[in-house]
Write a structure and sequence with these properties.
Layout lengths: L2 E6 L8 H9 L6 E9 L12 H30 L8 E7 L4 H11 L4 E4 L1 H10 L3 H7 L7 E3 L8 E6 L4 H14 L7 E7 L7 H16 L7 E7 L3 H12 L1 E7 L15 H9 L4 E5 L1
Parallel strand pairs: 1-2, 1-4, 2-3, 4-5, 6-7, 6-9, 7-8, 9-10
Antiparallel strand pairs: 5-10
Helix pairs in contact: 6-7
Length: about 290
């Protein structure tokens, strides 16, 4: 089945992190399609009482300049991708002037275009961190129909495999489905199922059930058990345990659902500070987040 990714592009070098991750991580790209997306700032609006030939001419000049910059960045990115693994028919480019904000335009395009994932470089990460302070934007980001986000902050190309973090929530199982869908045709990568539990946990029966269900989801996508590993870590805060495991295993991807389940200290395992800290601190590996 074809996989379609929305890849953000800007004039900054850091925006290429997402493209480089895709090129290094995926080996079988025949069924992978990319849409490169650039949203440009609009020039300052010309108010009715300010309208004259000079002001309108300046507005049009700035608009043309912004569009030329955006289309140039898209073309450079497209040439780069097509010079390596992708055919020209697999790569589209889309330019638009900013409607709301960079982050909101990206999120809305990701939802509207029914993409399998939205790929962000470091610039996109910064914009989304700013959004996290606004309750309305939090609701939009967490909406179930929003595509998974891949946050590419300094990915290291020699890394392999996926660390799939699970807590028994629906969101974590949706991420398991996403991981299985994306990696079914990538046999060189294995998937390690990981759960963080409170220190001193005596029984792992619930963990076994969670791993069993995730394994079934992966198998339904075509991932055999031979490519699945497991890991259980104790301790808090959970994001530190996840980062330690990611570094020990030199994983290319850390994948998790955005909402948690359960009670007490671990109720917010993959909410709030955990996901924010991973977005800010995780380097080397790419973070996949699924609402």
């Amino acid at each position: 089945m074809d996989k379609h990714l929305l890849v953000t592009v800007s004039g900054e070098e850091s925006a290429m992190h997402g493209i480089r991750f895709i090129l290094h991580f995926f080996r079988n790209v025949e069924n992978l399609k990319l849409t490169l997306f650039y949203t440009a700032p609009r020039p300052p609006a010309v108010w009715e009482h300010e309208k004259n030939f000079e002001s309108l001419d300046e507005f049009q000049r700035l608009s043309r300049k912004a569009e030329a910059k955006g289309r140039r960045a898209l073309e450079e990115a497209r040439r780069f991708v097509c010079s390596l693994q992708f055919g020209e028919e697999q790569v589209d480019a889309k330019f638009m002037f900013r409607q709301l904000s960079t982050a909101m335009d990206i999120l809305q395009e990701g939802e509207k275009g029914l993409y399998d994932a939205v790929v962000l470089g470091r610039r996109g990460l910064t914009r989304l961190e700013l959004l996290a302070e606004d309750s309305v934007s939090k609701e939009i980001i967490g909406h179930e129909s929003i595509a998974p986000m891949w946050i590419c902050r300094w990915p290291e190309k020699h890394r392999q495999h996926v660390l799939l973090c699970l807590d028994g929530s629906d969101a974590s199982y949706r991420m398991a489905d996403h991981v299985g869908f994306m990696l079914a045709d990538e046999p060189e990568h294995y998937i390690r199922l990981m759960r963080v539990v409170p220190s001193g946990t005596r029984t792992h029966r619930e963990t076994d059930d969670i791993f069993s269900r995730a394994t079934e989801i992966l198998a339904a996508n075509g991932v055999p058990e031979s490519r699945i590993r497991i890991a259980v870590r104790e301790g808090t805060p959970p994001w530190r345990a996840i980062m330690e495991e990611a570094e020990d295993g030199m994983y290319a991807v850390v994948a998790l659902g955005r909402t948690g389940s359960g009670g007490g200290l671990f109720k917010r395992l993959f909410m709030g500070s955990t996901s924010v800290n991973l977005m800010r601190e995780l380097v080397g590996a790419v973070l996949w987040v699924r609402p």
